[in-house]
Specification:
The protein is mostly beta strands and 269 residues long. Helices cover 7% and strands 43% of the residues.
Length: 269
């Protein structure tokens, strides 16, 4: 069985907070984006939350228009999907479509309709300013995004060959710290999306209390699935849904003895 490994770091000592950076690992190459949560706190934090929940893993860039945008972030891959919620529109005079590689939230023509879909600009696009929320830009390997903008496309501007985000990972914004590794937990779920039940397997590196929670996409507790002392090693369980659980996206959260934890996005269909 393949596990997703997530290591948690405890930072102590003097720290200098920098802007969050995010690494994209795609089928056309890797690149790095810097987010401006100092100027766009709502938009950037939403993107960080989705990334840490592994929402974008395996999602495609479903829309490419040469000289305009490369768009992705829809789990359905159609342009009509999202995380099951929307966020408020947010703008800042310093955050504009002033170059290639700007990242901004896609949305419908309605206000406050952005959710998980985003795009990268392929040129300066001043006509989009104060309509779509810019919240960062590419700072490494921008040529990967430029290459995406040149792929062959078919109906609805969808690339003929899928461009897949294999994974998207947050890079810590703390630039100076003494690092001490604490607990490591790994988690795998099957099937995902799920209908009537989902099987959960996880590895605990250090024995101790573990709480397993089902959260909604806003981080509110829907149900406590398990709680208790867990020995070091592999554990598994099955969660059976009730007829009252609405369809949509949820976050599976495992909290460990050190106060840390791991989260994974799951979908009920």
């Amino acid at each position: 069985m393949k596990y997703i490994n997530i290591a948690f770091l405890l930072f102590c000592g003097f720290q200098i907070q920098a802007q969050t950076q995010v690494d994209f690992y795609t089928t056309m190459g890797d690149f790095r984006v810097e987010l401006r949560e100092d100027l766009m706190p709502i938009t950037a934090q939403n993107f960080i939350d989705l990334t840490e929940a592994e929402f974008y893993d395996g999602v495609i860039f479903h829309r490419v228009i040469s000289g305009f945008v490369v768009q992705g972030g829809d789990p359905l891959g159609t342009g009509f999907g999202g995380p099951g919620y929307t966020i408020m529109d947010e703008y800042h005079p310093a955050m504009n479509h002033d170059s290639t590689g700007v990242i901004a939230m896609a949305k419908t023509s309605q206000p406050n309709s952005a959710g998980s879909q985003f795009y990268f600009s392929l040129d300066a696009l001043p006509s989009l300013d104060e309509t779509y929320a810019v919240f960062g830009s590419c700072i490494q390997n921008i040529e990967v995004i430029e290459a995406m903008g040149n792929v062959a496309t078919g109906a609805n501007d969808r690339p003929i060959v899928d461009i897949v985000m294999d994974s998207v990972r947050v890079v810590s914004g703390i630039t100076s710290a003494v690092k001490k590794e604490t607990q490591v937990v790994t988690i795998e779920t099957f099937p995902n999306p799920f209908t009537e039940s989902i099987n959960l397997s996880y590895i605990v590196k250090t024995a101790g209390p573990v709480d397993i929670l089902l959260l909604d996409i806003h981080g509110q507790i829907v149900e406590q699935l398990d709680s208790g002392y867990k020995s070091q090693g592999i554990h598994s369980m099955q969660f059976k849904t009730s007829s009252k659980l609405p369809l949509g996206s949820y976050i599976l959260s495992i909290k460990t003895a050190d106060g840390k934890g791991v989260k994974k996005l799951i979908r009920h269909k």
